[in-house]
Hints:
By secondary structure, the chain is mainly alpha-helical. The protein has seven helices and two strands, in the order H-H-H-H-E-E-H-H-H.
Amino acid sequence: MIEPSEQERRLGDLERELTLLSRHFIAARGPRIGQSLDRSAYVLLTRLESGEPLTLKELAHTFQADVSTINRQVGAMLKQGLVERIDATTKGGARTFRPTPLGLERLEADRAISRTGAARLIEAAGWSDERTQQFLTLMIEFNHGIEQLEGLAWDRDHSTRSRDRSTAE
């Protein structure tokens, strides 16, 4: 049997850790005290808040999902008042969707709970602010690399835009 190279071991360890991170995130997005959004609503609202309104097709492309899946998820969010449909004159006349003030409010409330959990983890691990910033920088670089490979850029400059949108309406 040929021993794996150091790079192969490192990549194997990285793949395992990413799988665990994904598992922890998915478990964390399950029903938790005080949180109101399901996982699909959470990630769709996160994407919709970060830029211009998007069509179902654009959302499906972003999440590499079937349009029918996104349609069901957005339909449920429409019924809950989390998103609104906009009849756009751009994008070939396709209807686009954007978060409602209620959707943004519930997203922020769930995020506050998630941030509290992240703070507990960082504190339990004994990470300094510098160590936390290093981890954040590496995560951003890693995600940017994925986005470049897949051609699915994600606008991260959303905090001001979301506040402006929710107060303007």
